[in-house]
Amino acid sequence: MSDTHSESVAFVRDTFIPEQPAPSSATGVVKWLQDNLFPTWLNGLLTVVSIFVIYKLLASTMPWMLNGLWNTESLAACREVLDGTTGACFSVITERWNQIQILGVKPESVEGASVGGQIEISAEVNLNALQPGDVDVEIFYGSINDHGIISEGDIIRMNHKENRNNGTHLFTGTLPFKASGRHGYTVRVLPTMARQSTPHELALIHWA
């Protein structure tokens, strides 16, 4: 006696089921986002924080750059045209750039001038009509080659410390001593990177 019910029918499929597209979560943009930006909760959190930081930076710099003026003859004329709107006076920066003077560069102390130590460097810069936010003041340092030139130099951005009289400003920065040998440093002034398309153009760099 068989256990097979009389109504049971054996069936063997002789055709294939048509292929179906992959679900949206397993392909395309959604899949890429899951694999690269949100693979774990920590990566997702870092992604959200990064997007927020980028948004804040763009929100503060883009209006300044997009509303910038290149054809005004003075700072007063530029401000009059902007009429309270956020915008860069690029024409004034270009016109006044040659008036910048690096008046002096000196270490506050040489006690930390040994491997593993560091010293504070101060630079007095006359910006005339420009403001500290219009420029980057940097320490350029590195090993000195046989020709007395700094080779493969590194950069340290200096911080604005004090506003003095007649457009003169004091900037400071910390210079580390990472290795022994012949090393040197100097200070340079260049347009703020976020506000100048070619900040390292040689005509727009002042060296101490």
Q: Would you mind describing this structure in some detail?
A:
With 208 residues, the protein is an alpha+beta fold. The protein folds into two domains: 24-66; 100-207, Sandwich (Immunoglobulin-like). Helices cover 24% and strands 28% of the residues. The protein has four helices and eight strands; from the N terminus they run H-H-H-H-E-E-E-E-E-E-E-E. It has a four-stranded antiparallel sheet with strand order 1-2-6-5, with no helix packed on it. The longest helix has 26 residues, at 41-66. The termini are far apart.
Report the biggest beta sheet as strand number plus sense, adding barrel if it closes: 4 strands, antiparallel
Q: Briefly, what CATH class of the largest domain? A: Mainly Beta
The CATH topology assignment of the largest domain is Immunoglobulin-like
Number of strands: 8
What is the spatial order of strands in the main beta sheet?
A: 1-2-6-5
Measured as a percent range, the helix fraction is 10-25%
